[in-house]
Amino acid sequence: MNHPLVPAPVALHRPADLLTLVENRTVYSLNAFELNIFETHQQAHKVALNMGSLVLTTMLRGKKVMHLPGRDAFEYLPGESVVVGEQQTMEIDFPEATEQNPTQCLAVAIPAETIRCTIDLLNERYPRTEEHTPWQLDAHDYAHLHNTPELTSTLERIIRVSQETTAAKDVLAGFTLQELLVRLMQTQARRLIFDNYQQHLTTHRFAHVVQYIKRNLAEPLTVEKLSELACMSKATFFRLFKREFGLTPVEYIIQERLSEAKRLLRHPLSTVADVCYRAGFNNPAYFQKLFRKHEGLTPGLYKKQCIVG
Question: Which regions form coiled coils (predicted)?
């Protein structure tokens, strides 16, 4: 089973079909965007690449080390995406690439006009909660992202529609690209508030909500209480939270409780039953089912792997 945060890898080229062992490029050109699949089969360093347009890249296999202007170098792994700005040159290291362990990465080159039109549409019809934080694509501060399941699912559709031969291919591609842009901006919004909520407590209502959730995971958390903290009606709070972040408040609470459960399970003296209640789950069977659905294994097996590791 493929990891829910990593798009299914595309079939690799046979060695005899490769034009180069370093960033061999397969291109799918559509009216809406250009999809590139890169694969590298040998170690290489400081390989420069500039695609002109703003590019969303996502790792499918292997490991790269990325060098972007104005940033420290960072490891780039499956389950992660990077936004590279328009006319920005990236330099890439491939420290572990071999014929048996190639890297594979997709890159979606997105026309600037498409980005502008999508952002204008969102800001006009579906504005974000706070007026001073309009929809935008951040190609610097929030350029390196951990994929969400929603973003991953949309990337897989981008790959599928690029390889179709139907007459409606370009129409479908246009709709899918718009969804991709929305998912990407929602993913960046999650990182802005979920990961850095303390910096926005005086400027963003959802930052207070996130802080309350994180501090009270073991307690009952109701939409009534959260909407009260956000100074909104229940219906408005639920709708705007989902619009801004791409998941419901309840889904976010589950996500945070599972993260806390994993942290607690790594402690050698913890028990699965104890972790269940300390993480805010009051039904052990439900906890087991939910943990397995999201992590692909039971809490007990996860704990054993942590101990062995």
Answer: none
| Cβ contacts of 300-304, under 8 Å, gap ≥ 24 | 300/272, 302/262, 302/265, 303/265, 303/266, 303/270, 303/272
Rounded CA-CA distance 225/158 in Å is 39
The total of other beta-carbon atoms located within 10 Å of residue 232's CB is 19
Other CB atoms within 10 Å distance of the CB of residue 274: 13
The three-state DSSP-derived secondary structure of 40-108 is ECCCEEEEEECCCCEEEEEEEECCEEEECCCCCCEEECCCEEEEECCCCCEEEEECCCCCCCCEEEEEE
175: CB partners within 8 A, 6+ apart: none
The two structure tokens encoding residue 36: 């590139």
Q: Where do runs of H (alpha helix) occur along the chain?
A: 112-125, 149-162, 169-194, 205-215, 223-229, 234-245, 249-265, 272-278, 284-295, 299-308
- Between the two ends of the chain, the Cα-to-Cα distance in Å is 22
Instruction: Evaluate whether 92 touches 49 at the Cβ level (below 8 Å).
Output: yes
Instruction: Give the number of C-alpha atoms closer than 13 A to the C-alpha of residue 107, restricted to the C-beta side.
Output: 22
pLDDT, one tens digit per residue, over 197-250 is: 999 999 999 999 999 999 999 999 999 999 999 999 999 999 999 999 999 999
Which amino acid is it at 91? E
Q: Is there a contact between 81 and 56 (Cβ–Cβ < 8 Å)? A: yes
Give the CA distances from residue 298 to residues 194, 266, 304, in Å, rounded to whole numbers and listed in that order.
26, 13, 10
Torsion sign over Cα 72, 78, 84, 90: positive
Those residues whose C-beta lies under 8 Å from the C-beta of residue 196, and which sit 6 or more positions away, are none
User: 42: which 2 tokens?
Assistant: 């040998």
153-174 pLDDT per residue, tens? 999 999 999 999 888 999 999 9
